[in-house]
Amino acid sequence: MNSDATTRPAAPSLRQLTPAASLLLVVAAGAWAGVVLMARNMGSAPGTMGLGAGSFGGVWALMMAAMMLPSVTPFASLYSRTFTGGRGSRMGVFASGYLIVWTLAALPAYGLAWLAGRLAGGHPAAATVLAVAVFTACGAYQLTPLKDRCLARCRSPLGFMLKLGAYRGRTRDLRAGLYHGTFCLACCWALMAVLVAFGLMNVIAMVVLAGAVLAEKTWARGTRFSRALGIAALALAIAVVFEPGLAPGLHYAGTGGMGGM
Q1: Which 3 state secondary structure label does DSSP give 74?
Q2: Taking a C-beta distance cutoff of 8 angstroms, is the pair 255, 120 a contact?
């Protein structure tokens, strides 16, 4: 076999969106505007940016709406074709379930960011070790069979549709969003973890990672691209030892990586 396109069903596409699914792109655009505004006001300091757990969760939810909704829109478009009425409200419930999963991920993200802030403030050598660990974990996971299986479910969602077709009742769309969001989190958590190394409010890093997730799920060569991301992350794990500035989210300006402050 010479390409992903010949071995796997075609991935969902952004080219044929339903009106209901297109609303998610509008929400994502609004979330991006909010993220940019907050980044200008808050900067991109290491750690939790001085936020408590509750405030951090709100900021994280906004970030995930901006970064992840575009990548789920092709699947949402396919799912919305099963609607017979109330398309806008049902899509809103589906998106809510999806974002609930990613919002719950704020808890481990907050713990990792808190640790990053503590190390960046007084233990730059340990902060570099954490950067190595984050990049290594991301790179290694991108190359695992589990990543491949989760990505395959997102790229070829017919299996999802068969399962979701059995859902009944008023909570059907919420359950569908939770179910799909869980697979999406399993697929993309490692990429999101590197935000701690790059800085949680680093807009450039957020744009790059959001584009990477979208490419993984919708590009014809997305599976190969996913593996290439893993190799790049492993390369960063080595490079950051020699150039700690590659992980700005783990070092305050003017601090070294393996030496003292």
Answers
A1: helix
A2: yes
CA distances for 182 relative to 49, 52, 91, 218, angstroms:
27, 25, 17, 18
* pLDDT, tens only, 165-221: 666 677 888 988 998 899 899 999 999 999 999 988 899 999 999 999 999 998 989
* Ranges of residues in the chain whose predicted pLDDT is under 70: 1-16, 43-45, 157-168, 252-261
For every residue of 136-170, DSSP letters joined together read: HHHHHHHTSHHHHHHHHHHHSTHHHHHHHTT--ST
Burial of 137 (0-12, 13-18, 19+ CB in 10 A): middle
With residue 8 as reference, give the H or E element that holds it.
Answer: none
- Are 136 and 234 in contact by the 8 Å Cβ rule? The answer is yes
d(CA 233, CA 239): 10
Return the HEC string of 30-63.
Answer: HHHHHHHHHHHHHCCCCCCCCCCHHHHHHHHHHH
> How many whole angstroms separate alpha carbon 199 and alpha carbon 38?
13
**Token digits of residue 45:** 């300091």
Of 73, 80, 64, 90, the closest CA to residue 26 belongs to: 73
3-state secondary structure of 213: helix
Task: Report the alpha-carbon distance of residue 218 to residue 12 in Å, rounded.
Answer: 6
* Distance (Å) of CA 2 to CA 6, 7, 58, 238: 7, 8, 44, 31
Helix H or strand E segment including 244: none
Beta-sheet strands, E only, within the chain? none
CB 92 within 8 A of CB 225: no
